[in-house]
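Q: I'm teaching a short session on how sequence maps to structure, and I want students to see two examples side by side rather than one. Could you give me a first protein with its sequence written out and its structure tokens following it? Keep the formatting plain so it prints cleanly on a handout.
A: Of course. Example one:
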Amino acid sequence: MLIKGSRDKQKENDKLRESLSRKTVSLEHLQREYASVKEENERLQKEGSEKERHNQQLIQEVRCSGQELSRVQEEVKLRQQLLSQNDKLLQSLRVELKAYEKLDEEHRRLREASGEGWKGQDPFRDLHSLLMEIQALRLQLERSIETSSTLQSRLKEQLARGAEKAQEGALTLAVQAVSIPEVPLQPDKHDGDKYPMESDNSFDLFDSSQAVTPKSVSETPPLSGNDTDSLSCDSGSSATSTPCVSRLVTGHHLWASKNGRHVLGLIEDYEALLKQISQGQRLLAEMDIQTQEAPSSTSQELGTKGPHPAPLSKFVSSVSTAKLTLEEAYRRLKLLWRVSLPEDGQCPLHCEQIGEMKAEVTKLHKKLFEQEKKLQNTMKLLQLSKRQEKVIFDQLVVTHKILRKARGNLELRPGGAHPGTCSPSRPGS
């Protein structure tokens, strides 16, 4: 019995040893698995921290891209403003070109109509004013080209550096450069300052007109150089109170001369002057009749009670009306100019000037066309860079979302068990 009991104990001990060995092997396997899982966890934590740093870097790049995008949008706005200014300038030059074509057509028609050429008429009336405006337009075009080149250089520098302080300084410089005052194109409006060369001459017209005017106009101040400058505007004291503007075509200002033996003026002014003269003559005739019908000195002595008040008041009103009529005629007379007609030798000079100005207009037109092409290419490049930045921004947003999802998975993974890795390697007891 003891031997049998010892055998049973021996068998039981063997089973326990075998079970213990299996448990030991399983424990060693679990320890190795735990070590591998721990290493994997550490590796994943390192990767998570690296992904977090990369994520922060991508967020910073997204912010920088947003700032760059806003800067590019500001640049596009400035380019659009500059393009609109160049469009206005191009439209003005087209108007000038049409005006030159019309002048050329008028000159050709006049030469075909009469063989006298330019004598008595000037088809290039706006010659000086158009020359001044073309010079102003050329100056504005040069400023616009300089501004465009400055903007292009600033844009390249900003794209290379990407510094915020440099961006703000460049934008301020661009805004200051773009704000160029536009020269208004008013070919019909010419003041005294527009023609400094002609205004210095002080063309006094009708110097001998004071001897022709009656004595009733002696109270009116004589003509002066200031009154006759700037194409003899209205004196401002007329009944209509119209603004003081020139009523003559500006091209005839080139003919003005105080020693001229001809008179230049509008037919309306001449007809109004004739009307004032006829009214004055009619008033003088009525006054003559009133003086003839007035009672003689003897009839005044033999008559009843003193002078007749009604004819006297009528005579006084006629005198005042005649004075106003003469003053108005004097003002109309100031609208006429003493001029010297151009000689035949001046025709080649005018033709040469017109040819030079046409060549200048063509040159400016070509420059404007080239500038417009450059601006269009710049706009295309800006739009392309804007689209590329938008694609990069969208890609960064997608990457940011993926990284956030990966971060969430990494945060959930270390806390949970890993049954998929433990159960296959665990032996059955």
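Q: Perfect. Now a second example for contrast.
A: Example two:
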Amino acid sequence: MALVRLVSSVRRMLQPPQWSFFPQVQLEVLPGVHLPEESVEDADDDALWHACPKSKVTRSRKRIRNNDPSKRLKNIVHLQDCEHCGDKKLRHRLCMGCFKKGVYFTS
């Protein structure tokens, strides 16, 4: 089936357009290779329409999808107090106030 589609697509690509000013060349097929019927080409054309939406997505539906609570930013709940200065810092991170003062390097 895949070979049949490949042969039909190659045949379509090699055919010159109808509006061409050049003389048309008859393509010869290898002996023993049978070209598919035109019904296979119709099946290929139908496959091109599957990705098209049937109607426009309304603004409200789009906003519902994009503003889903699982996609929003989460609150930071893993804050700790710094041992040196008492400022808030993230767990397993350096305190930026102490880092800029050089407390971590002097003690």
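Q: What should students look for in example two?
A: Point them to this: Residues 2-14 form the longest helix (13 residues). Also worth mentioning: The beta strands are 79-81, 88-90.
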